Amino acid sequence: MAEAISSDLSTKHLSSYLNDHLAGAVAALELVEHLARNYPDTTLESFFADLHADISADQDVLRDLLHTFEAKESTVRKAGAWLAEKVGRAKFGLNENDVSGTGLLEALEGLAMGITGKQLLWRALAAASEVLPQLRGLDYEQLEQRALEQRGRVDQKQLAAAREAFKPAND
Question: Would 171 be classed as within a structural domain?
Answer without folding.
Answer: no
